[in-house]
């Protein structure tokens, strides 16, 4: 559900964040941030947009970041889930409709790149400024611990999908790396899945818990509790190397004999291009200070994700986003989705 800015701000006195930031002990970074904060800004709570449903990996990260942003800055903020179109609705709002006064920021990820391609030219990734990196992690391939694929691993599941094409159900988020991963699995194994669309990874995991799909992809924060409760099992992870959070789980590459199944998530803060430079600089510094807080790094670690110190400036982040966009375009060209 999307809540309008006017409705949220108008009820500020009743919101759970009201006054909460001021109750925190003053953060060591506060003085430096106050020294560069533009006069009269912010004049209202800052909206932090998550484009996927509540409870998913992006939403969990967004709420942790929002809490530390308030702790660092002493300013009020709120998370708003602007969902729809598997992320396209929220990304389009950020790129084309969000206020350019610095009172709306996006907590986004590299899925914005595929959504820009799906926007049919309405907007580009370059219509946003990418100002602060948050964290990154691979995708985990999960099955139900009581389902038909609780044994046999990824290889056994692919063999079933090859033997019974179009019957093994996989949760899909249309138009991004969930879909690309499914295609790579099919190409490498000669299998064919029944793709079941969802608005985000979290709803797909919920469907897997009910045995409504056979395979789903999730981030560590989305699946950790279900693994601890013996309800879900990891059968593979994306990336070139096993993840430290699931060290006994093989990579997809090692199972299917490829080296290019490396889809994962990189999360960051983005703002509309037209936000004034001084406000943009303050926001970037504030989020960098939040991410540098050892307590936030530990919370990220508990969520199975880590910051990337190499992306600690807007320039480095924007260069990395451009590289990610080029890599995704190369895949889209190779798969015939876009012309060469």
UniProtKB/TrEMBL annotation:
Protein name: Tripartite-type tricarboxylate transporter, receptor component TctC
Entry similarity comment: Belongs to the UPF0065 (bug) family.
Residues spanning the signal sequence: 1-23
Source taxon at top rank: Bacteria
Keywords carried by this UniProt record: Receptor, Signal
CDD domains, per the entry: PBP2_Bug_TTT (cd07012)
